[in-house]
Design a protein that fits this description.
Number of domains: 1
Distance between the termini: 56 Å
Largest sheet: 5 strands, antiparallel
Structural class: alpha+beta
Strand order of the largest sheet: 1-2-3-4-5
Radius of gyration: 19 Å
Order of helices and strands: HEHEEEEH
Amino acid sequence: MYKNLMVGLSFLALTGCAAFEHEAIKLSREKVNVSQEDIEQARNAVLLSLKDPESAKFTNWYGTREPGEDSASAICGEVNARNSYGGYSGFTHFAVVSNTVYLYTNTPIYGVSDDNIRIVELCTPAQ
């Protein structure tokens, strides 16, 4: 009985670890300027995801696109806003694609968060 339990727990531990492996990130995007209208749309999307949107401060706005695209497909920047305790936690990176917001997580619970990976993919221009 003990042996079966140990084999089962080992199997669960190994399959649980495999779920958090990620492929290498491919960086192919170009940095581009964005219009004030695009910035305003992205700003409104980010504000909806914050606990205290009125306290939000934004900086470092820019867009990225895949080679061959006409305009920015991702809007990137940094935001600082009050957290649940009422304090500012510091500027954190974000990306907005078609009103989907990806906020950088400083302390992901299990490994690397999917949002963090998407931000790197979307907001890091190719060298």
